[in-house]
Structures are given as C-alpha cells and as structure tokens.
Specification:
The chain crosses the membrane at residues 53-79, 86-110, 116-145. This protein has helices at 2-26, 51-78, 82-112, 116-150, 152-161. The protein is mainly alpha-helical.
Length: 162
Amino acid sequence: MITITTIKINVIMNVWVIIYNHYNHHHHPHHPHHPYHPHHHHGHHQPHHYPSIITMIIILNINVCITIIITISTILIIMDIYLINIIIIIIIISTLLFIIILITILIIILNITTTITVTIVMIIIIIIIIIIILIIFTITFLTIITVTTIGTNHNDIQHHYQ
C-alpha cells in the first residue's frame, strides 16, 4: 500500500507543478496582451508559449511510468503466481498507452490553441486521468491481496515442487 501513497504524492506534486508553471506562464509581464487581444493568434507563430507545458506533461508521464515500473517490480518480487503477473502487465501496458495517447492529444490541443480555458480543461483532463489510473491501481492491488490470501495454500504446494 506504500507504493499507492507514493504514486499519489508524486502525481499530486506533478499536477501542482503544471498548474503553477501554467499560471506563471499566462501572467507573464512579457505578454500583457496575451489572452484578450482579438487579432492575437495562438498558432505555430508562438512556440515559446508551450515548451514548458509540454515538458511538464512529459515529466508527469515519465514519473508515472517510473512509479508503475517500481510497482511492477515490487509486485513481481512479492508474488509467485504467474497469472496475476500477466494480468498486471497487461493492465499497466494499457494504462501507459492510455496516458501516452491522452498526452499526445493534449499536445495537439496546445499546438492549436493556448487560451486560459483550454489550459483549465487540460488540467481537469489530467486530474481525471490521474483519478482513473489510481482507481485501476487500487483495483489491481485489491485483487492481488484477495488472490494472495486465497492462494497461500496453492503457493505452499508450488514451493514443495520447486
């Protein structure tokens, strides 16, 4: 259960960094006309607006990946049951793919428009993604716990043959 708390802390930190970074970016003295000017187009003309945001998203992604890898390794060390390992790996791969797809979508959105509303929506989306990931993790951990409690006898038998 320690791993789940570390993931939560990690993710919360990342979200706060993104929000803070974003807020600072939008209220920068260099761009006083930024959100309001009607003739001001936020397209590919202003690449300096989103590198920081994209890097923050990438950092978040990397962090989530690292935490997932750590959890996999700990689970694999703790577990002896082969089937569960496969299930966990499948779930993790799917979540990672999900995260990557969503991040690419977010980057595309950011490239099209960089308005305050879009950033707010993006932050909300990120939070939703994090909640989904945490739910998936808690479910997998609960299943692992139940299976380990049920399959202790089976494990003992397995150990006899090894």
